[in-house]
């Protein structure tokens, strides 16, 4: 008989911050519950700074191949995938893993196959309104599918296994700070209003172009508006130089990635964001109204459907990528910033749509299942 003391769980996440960040939130929650927790990710994902939060002894790496239509990659895919499955099997066997939690994305697929072959319970976490390929493929093998949006059941066959828990959010994001204190952290204490621009873990080219254009073309209208601007690593140097050379940089906090994102949410009156589920649920949990600009090339158009959920809830306004130009976005910004009551209503509706305790709900559910498995059969 297995007891809780000799159990461990394996969280598998990689590819983007949208998969990794909720995985880290679950990792921290399991650890708080006294469970030995391992974190498996792809070798190419070591660049994500959030992975520094995982204890070195708990971090596991493997080479998980991505799905591709490239003929050369298709040819080597079977051998690479099989190799990743074997690595995952070894990790599961050597560490007494009693549950594998897949956070979606191609990185989780080999470990989920290994779990299925070894008859280890597997659980899925789906961030987006439209489930990804991994969730659709493994849903019939999963004990539970934990998701963010109720609309997701439209795309699943095993709807009885679906639990709308929300997208796990790290506790350090949910900071409780006064707006004045938060703005001071970004040197924006003199700004009457603050806009947060956040394009996800890798930034967003279109959002960067939009915000630069807004500051350049509408400098007078935005002179009292501070901007916390997350450019992404690839665009940071470019926009640092452009801002220095072409516009007033006094009211801009520019960073490749906002490390103190919880404080940024507290500082902001309004956010302009891509519509990945991770950022959206963090905005909701912190009550930040938003202008959602979905990435048009997201798989199955899931960002557009994510944004629609928030629009229906009254927590956001959606602007299409093709309309994300200064002359069309500026009137929307002005209407919102000049209407405190509208912003307050959106904030309240964002909070109503939030599920800030997702990590706790998911971990409690999984531990309950494992406890039942560990009980001896009735005589």
Textual characterization of the structure:
It is a single chain. The protein is α/β, with parallel strands linked by helices. The protein folds into 2 domains: 4-171 and 356-373, Rossmann fold; 175-353, Rossmann fold (3-Layer(aba) Sandwich), CATH 3.40.50.2000. Helix content is 41%, strand content 16%. It has 13 helices and 13 strands. It has helices at 17-32, 71-94, 109-117, 133-138, 179-185, 205-217, 236-246, 261-267, 277-285, 302-313, 326-337, 340-353, 358-374; strands at residues 8-12, 36-42, 59-62, 97-102, 122-126, 145-147, 162-164, 193-198, 225-230, 252-255, 270-273, 290-292, 316-318. The strands form 2 sheets. Strands 3-2-1-4-5-6-7 form a 7-stranded parallel beta sheet, sandwiched between helices. The protein has a 6-stranded parallel beta sheet with strand order 10-9-8-11-12-13, sandwiched between helices. β12, α10 (302-313) and β13 form a beta-alpha-beta unit. The radius of gyration is 22 Å and the shape is globular.
